[in-house]
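Support reply, case 0932

Customer input (verbatim):
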Amino acid sequence: MSRAAEYLRQAREAFDQNKAQSQRWFDLRLRTGYVLVGLDIVMAIASTILMFAHAAFPDWVLGAAAVTMPSGIAGTAFIAWRLILG
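Our regenerated output:
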């Protein structure tokens, strides 16, 4: 009887450990997703400010902002999508 009880205890311990590890991975993925969404917002705001204040910046800065805004936002959105949804 003690052998079966020990087996059951070990199985329960392995299950609880797996459950805790899964929760930690979920939390990490969720936090990373939030950081990427925040990064998207920061890139959009910075690029928009550059576009509206175009007279204060050289043309190459505006060109870089015009390329960075859609590609950077799309890239981080794709990474967030893949990271969160697997």
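We compared this against your earlier run and they match. Two observations from our side: The mean pLDDT is 85. The CA atoms of residues 25 and 31 lie 10 Å apart. Please reopen the case if you see a mismatch on your end.
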